[in-house]
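[SOLVED] Need 3D model of a two-part complex

Original post:
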Amino acid sequence: MIKKFNYKKYIVYISFIIVFTVFSIVLKDKGFSSPANLMNILRQTSMISVAAIGMCFAISAGLIDLSIGGVISITALLVALLLKYSISVPVAVTAGLGMGALCGAINGGIVAKVRIPSFLVTLGTSTIFAGASRIMTNLEAVPITNKVFNNVFGSGNIGPISSLFIWTLIMMTIGHIVYKKTSFGKAVLSVGGNESAARYSGINVDKTKFWTMVICSISASFAGIMYAARMHGARYTLGENDVMSVIAAVVIGGTSFSGGKGTIVGTIIGSIVIGILNNGLLLMGLSVSEQMIARGVVIIIAVSLSLRESRD
Amino acid sequence: MGKQQEYALEIMDVKKSFYENLVLDGVSFELKPGEILGFLGANGAGKSTLMKIITGVYKMDSGMIKINGNQVSGEQISKIRENSVAMVYQEFSLIPSMTVTENLFLGSELKKHGLIDEKRQELEAKNMFKEFGIDINPSVAVEELSIGNQQLVEIVKALMKKPLVLIMDEPTASLANNEINLLFKFMRKLKQNGISIILITHHMQEVLEVCDRVIVLREGKVVMNRITDELCIDTMVEAMVGKAILSKDVLQKKGINNTQRVLLEINNLYWQSKLNNINFKVHYGEVVGIVGLLGSGRTELLKCLYGLLTPTKGTIIFDNKQIEHKLTPEKAIKIGMCYVPENRRKNGIVAIHSVENNMLMSIWNRILNYGIINKKISMQKVYDMVKNIKIKCVNKDQEIRNLSGGNQQKVVFAKGLLINPKLMILDDPTVGVDVEAKESIVKIIREFTNRGSAVLLVSSEFDQLEKICDRILILKEGSVKKELQYGRDCINEITISEAVQLN
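Solution:
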């Protein structure tokens, strides 16, 4: 009954400040806190952020999507191929998002109708999607020469601000409104909080799960489009290692891993924490293998701080 | 445990407050060895705080506790308590997939060469059951036992450390009548073995039946401490709420006549083997009670009506329209039904969500403005409900799990009422709520039917059915065996239980 300062509510901001301060001090000479590097971090983080918005919906509904890596690369490759054959940008982008929706519909359909846990469904589809993206171009990379596409969705800037970051803000706003202010958002949280009570209260649980998985895949496919535009091309390796970062971002952001509670804004901050981590470890001059170990350790610490539930 | 003392447990002037809020205001009482003490009090009276102080979860601010004559204070507190006081909680702590023996010895397994000695455990479990005259096979999985037997296993588990005092928190809440009798028999056996029992309950009939003495707690004080023989239900209720409740305040009943419009008509309804050819009608403005023992199909019947189960055969006509397609709760709500489930924690509330989110769960899609939830309307609706049915909460954003059981149930009712239903389906809506909340739930039902809507009510509390039902259907083995009708038959607790027991 003793009221303690509920640090968990603010853990994402606390970890943000800690990670930022530590790297600012340690990497002072390497220009970590220079405006150019900070914008660089936001640019690198955008794809994680956008994918994490969808993941936040999935985790809030008590679901998870392990297949987003495959969705990212399939979308990026599809858009790159379409642009290569001179399809217009809006059509290519719509087709890319449609591909995301299709992948999500496969995940969601199996989760809702066959009633298999989303963890297992997407564990399976993750290798299916990843395999499909390898087949698409026979492992070849596809360059994108369409300047409009590259500028609008990736490497362009408006003033000093990267278009990637602007897209992140747009997606965050849409995500936040859907999450907090629509009946769908409430349904997602209810299903995640207590599926049975949600069903008794007239919420269509299957439908909610289906659309949550679709939203999660669509946001991953938007991240794929951003990757393609930033890299000026697509390759099957895009998004390959992002699943862990995206899930960690959502959890560090304060979303309950068992569902029912979460925040979109926190998710974005959580992604930026992950981004700072990736950037800082790189600037410290660690090798790739060392980075992997360090990142894993820090993520476990951050996640355990935000997940430790008081038992009552 | 040493020589026999005069008292197993002595509580002296125990005080406890949380912040400014005085929860226990000098509570004193004694418990003799082998005494069964009934402990009554409305939700929030301080019962659970006191029990948590006795079991050592909370520290008291001042006062003294003696266990078996020894004052417990300082460092030995936890040790003495651990050995002398055991508590059986409302929710089971058993692991369903494990066997009874495994559950009993969980955490303190008997070992041989570092490995679990299953044979010896099983033997000891058998002896234990034999000693208390319980007929349970210790090698079956707990999930295969009836709820009543699970409750007994739970108690035996608490007895494993041979306590002097056993505290039971509403042990009968989920039991059927015959299981309750079994439990009482067991409690009397424990009494003979010199174990003292504190029984926390809302059921006064049970107190009269099994307890030697009754203590009533109100606003942190002991307001009554008397031998059961001197008591009747009205005195206890009066002590609990501090005023006389008009317990015979009967709902204006309407003897139905054939001219009244039919709201719900059920014809030849079957569901698997549990429901066999059910036929009945519910009229506008009517309260129809359904009575039956556990396994009589009462819950299944309600679930078929609300679309939680799909009937194998039969027709349901609601509001002059036959329900054609597969019914779901979503559609049931759309055509004007709501459902208050039996198990509130499991099916009624999202514990980690706010009062507001719980209350509006069914109607979010009705208060949209261009797809966005209209904050003004949603706040107004919550505010009105909190005011109308007197829900005690800090504000609309308080997590519902921090409300008392009765107030949680009121929120579940509010959720149903906000649907604006023509028919309310209630599955034992007053289980585990205190007397005052019960009264206000009865009031809610009354006001609801006065506006012309109908209620279908399953309840295991016959006095409540007597108070509010216009008609009572007796369900047995999945079919309606008898019908009691106001104005034609005598409806009271006795006639209802007679009809239920009927073969």
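Edit: Residues 262-501 of chain B form a domain with the Rossmann fold fold (CATH 3.40.50.300).
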